[in-house]
Amino acid sequence: MSDIHTSHDGASHGSYKSYTIGLVLSIVLTLIAFGVVMTGSFSLPVMMVTVVVTAVIQVLVQLVLFMHLNTKAEGGWNVISFVFTIGILTLIVGGSLWIMHNIHVNMMLG
After folding, report:
1. Domain residue spans in the chain?
2. CA angle (30 as vertex; 44, 37 as ends), nearest 5
3. CA dihedral 7, 13, 14, 20 (to 10 degrees)
4. H or E segment at 13?
5. CA-CA distance, 72 to 10, in Å (whole number)?
6. What's the CA gap between 90 and 52, in Å, rounded?
7. How far is it, in rounded angstroms, from Cα 70 to Cα 84?
8. The three-state (H, E, C) secondary structure of 56-68, written as one string
9. For 7-61, how does the pLDDT look when each residue is reduced to its tens digit (9 = 90+)?
């Protein structure tokens, strides 16, 4: 029996190896971000950049290894999904940073 799961339309649904790699990468990325914040031995900008970078890599790992989005399947619809995901991610992160900056400027005394 094959290690790769396929659906009735022939599309690949990954293998145990890809799921294991995805799980290990997700755990490692989470531990990196958690460790950088909890040790407190890094400056605030280094912590922020590390958390954002590991979060973006985490999203890409989840999309590729768990949701099986790639550039080869379904006539380009997966590429559109990637572009949409990057757009939404940019809007959420950029909007959150903008809101937090405005709250900081308008609410902080001094």
Report:
1. 1-68, 71-110
2. 25
3. -120
4. strand 12-15
5. 13
6. 11
7. 14
8. HHHHHHHHHHHCC
9. 555 556 678 998 999 999 999 999 999 999 999 899 999 999 999 999 989 988 9
